[in-house]
Design goal:
Helices cover 46% and strands 21% of the residues. The protein has 394 residues and is α+β, with helices and mostly antiparallel strands. The chain has three domains: 4-186, Serine Threonine Protein Phosphatase 5, Tetratricopeptide repeat (Alpha Horseshoe); 188-258 and 363-371, Immunoglobulin-like (Sandwich); 261-358. Helix 7 runs antiparallel to helix 8 and helix 9 (268-306) runs antiparallel to helix 10 (318-351). It starts with a strand and ends with a strand. 24% of the residues are buried.
């Protein structure tokens, strides 16, 4: 005969009894000794709550305050016999609790029959009725039985969402040991980091981070692909291989994908060459003009002194004429050189016209792989004081 959950933890370990055998025994005695007992009294005698209409509510029994205190195993725990102040009782109706208990009984029976997949489905249905840390704990154990360690971790994480005392005593220790075993033997951890605003980072096709920020996720060991994207930036695709018990910390940064204008040289350099050639040509032209004037003056002076007499000795300064001839030669050379430099400069202007191109792809992902560590910061409220409890798993 399968075991039936007779309560769910209300800040204390759950009392599990073989309800069918107990109920049958009590009912048998009641029928023999008190044949006139009403259905309501029978239900109360057997420990089954009855709704106002007189129908059985589903088999939930609630232990007395003294029994709950003694079963808790931890002195000083505040036990609320009416369960009204426990967060997982808020907004849950009696009917929902009854349905959840019935589903838990079915899950226990299916587990004994080694029908683990069906049992997992019952736990999921029970959670849909009642979001209770005990059901999440049972769900985690059921998930591990069907080789779904990530699902098991997710439900253990939801247990601690209610605080460090969501489970107490032996069950809390079992949950902590289960977490450690999952991290060391069945799971790896991926930590994604980015300081860029608007960046979207996905792991195995699921979005886990919109930057800036940091996020951590448990994954199965093996090869995993991280993709990052942002409008106007180069995308990034990075694969990492992780073994069980290892953690990869990945810092992602994307570079801007834009059209850039490039030139061979700075804009001013070709024009400087052109200017140099023009200046050199003007200087040469000036020398030629001055030399021409000097030579013209010398020829005029010669003509005035001798006329048509071929035997007349020239009176012009021969040195001045030679200097003028030299300046003329230099000026001519300067004009030619200046023209060549100017043409070179104009060629550089054409070659230095702007060209459009894409910016360089400098997107990167810095990956550091080390041992797994998971830190939990849980709120703790006790009386008039409040604080946090920190758990670190290595």
């Amino acid at each position: 005969m399968s075991a039936t959950y007779t309560c769910l933890r209300a800040h204390m370990p759950c009392v599990r009894l073989r309800v069918p055998s107990v109920v049958q025994l009590v009912l048998a005695v009641a029928l023999l000794c008190l044949p006139a007992m009403s259905p309501t009294a029978l239900a109360q005698e057997s420990g089954v709550s009855v709704n106002p209409s007189g129908d059985e509510s589903g088999g939930e029994t609630v232990a007395s305050t003294a029994a709950l205190n003694s079963d808790a195993g931890e002195p000083g725990l505040m036990v609320d016999p009416d369960h009204k102040n426990l967060p997982w009782y808020q907004g849950v109706t009696e009917a929902q609790r009854m349905r959840a208990l019935a589903l838990l009984e079915q899950a226990a029976t299916l587990t004994e029959e080694l029908r683990f997949i069906d049992a997992l489905a019952r736990y999921q249905q029970a959670l849909a009725e009642w979001d209770h840390p005990e059901i999440h704990f049972e769900m985690a154990r059921a998930a591990l039985r069907v080789n779904q360690p990530v699902l098991a971790w997710e439900h253990l994480d939801k247990v601690w969402r209610w605080g460090p005392n969501a489970l107490i005593g032996e069950d809390r220790e079992q949950a902590r040991q289960l977490e450690l075993m999952l991290l060391q033997e069945h799971l790896a951890v991926v930590e994604l980091r980015s300081g860029q605003s608007g960046i979207s980072v996905t792991l195995a096709g699921k979005q886990f981070l919109v930057g800036p920020g940091v996020t951590r996720h448990v994954v199965r060991p093996g090869m995993h692909t991280v993709a990052a994207a942002k409008a106007g930036h180069y995308p990034l695709l990075q694969s990492i291989s992780l073994a069980a018990g290892r953690q990869a910390t990945m810092t992602v940064a994307l570079s801007e994908d834009r059209v850039v204008e490039t030139r061979r040289w700075s804009r001013w350099k070709p024009w400087a060459v052109v200017g140099t050639g023009v200046a050199l040509g003007l200087a040469g032209a000036g020398l030629r003009w001055d030399a021409d004037r000097t030579l013209s003056d010398a020829e005029a002076q010669f003509a005035d002194g001798c006329g048509d007499d071929l035997s007349c000795a020239p009176v012009a300064d021969a040195g001045a004429k030679d200097k003028a001839s030299a300046r003329y030669t230099i000026g001519t050379s300067a004009v030619i050189a200046g023209g060549a430099v100017a043409v070179t400069g104009l060629t550089m202007v054409v070659l230095n016209m702007s060209r459009s191109s894409r910016s360089e792809d400098r997107s990167r992902a810095l990956v550091n792989i080390g041992p797994t560590s998971v830190t939990r910061v849980l709120p703790v409220v006790s009386g008039d004081s409040a604080g946090v409890m920190v758990f670190v798993d290595f």
